[in-house]
Amino acid sequence: MKILVLNCGSSSLKYQLIDMENESVLAKGLCERIGIEGSKLTHKVAGKDDFELETPMPDHSKAVSLVFDALTDASHGVVKSVDEIGAVGHRVLHGGTKFTESIVVNDEVKKVIRECFDLGPLHNPANLMGIEACEKVVPGKKNVAVFDTTFGMAIPEKAYYYAIPTEYYEKYGIRRYGFHGTSHTYVSNETIKFGNLDPKNAKVIVCHLGNGASISASIGGKGVDTSMGLTPLEGLIMGTRSGDIDPAVVQFICNHENKSVDEVLNILNKKSGILGMSGVSSDFRDVEKAAEEGNHMAKVGLEAYRYRIAKYIGAYVAAMNGVDAIAFTAGVGENDKKTRKLIVDEYLGYLGAKIDDERNDVRGEERLISTDDSKVKIFLIPTNEELAIARDTLRLVEA
Ligand code: AMP
How many angstroms is it from 200 CA to the middle of ligand 1? Predict the structure, then answer.
């Protein structure tokens, strides 16, 4: 079966068509500037020139219909008709407390996604628009919602409750949900498979280090803890997000800078992290270059970034009473050998973890990067959220 995977943002739509016979990507692409002037579709098929189309996309329905046109086009298409596409898997940010699993979309599912607009104000409305656009453009085709919160829904009460009055959980579902769930599920399972670890009992820590960053602990692939919280702001230092912070900082800045809570949260989400500390960029390559050129706060920002990761690794080793494997993934985790090496060399000696410099000299491919005598196995495992969404979609439509 061929599965279309859609990841809709407020003004963008990313897609991949995956042939589940061999899990190969038949085509992938991106619609940009939906609802804004200058909308553009870029469609990529292996072995062919990219197809680019600049045409108005007033809404997600138009974008989805252009995607289906591109996929079925005589010259740059990959299927003869939409009938060859078995189902559509949608990345949905937030499923609230209702969904602990991916699910075939019906009216009730859409209602819950809508009820979670508050919890995922930037993503859930766009995710729902993507689903409704598919219902309109290819009626009758099954849509599956794969929630980014699913991994976090498995973590125990002691890990997900905030120590605030319980009424806020009861009234509003305020708890830790975690995000990048599809990635944490995929990478932890892939680590077990690739590393030939015990599928039931392997204790795995996944460091998803991209522009957004989060870290998780799991045993046998089942979530024990994850660093993001009610929103993606909690946890690690990220490209533009502060991660963990004393909430009183918000009040202090509000009072001293005459700003609203929303304005300060915007600063914590978009202007903080490695960007805010270094004042240089949210891209780690720029910040590393600045640090090498002597920019003190770029250097401190990178040190703080690694330090926070190491603190979480320590916490998760305690949470699981041990660790068998640590996996690095996403933009920084897959491409930045120096950061991987420094985290292990500077902080993980107490675990008997040792990086192998030759094995670590790698980008974006599954590999063991620790020495043979390392007490903890360390891996590079590229994430593949689209494939994880497609696998869940296939499982549910075949059920
Ligand atoms: P992602 O969100 O997973 O796409 O990751 C994007 C981030 O990965 C970028 O913002 C970069 O900071 C980082 N990145 C990509 N390549 C490298 C590299 N070679 N060295 C350091 N950071 C990188």
Answer: 32
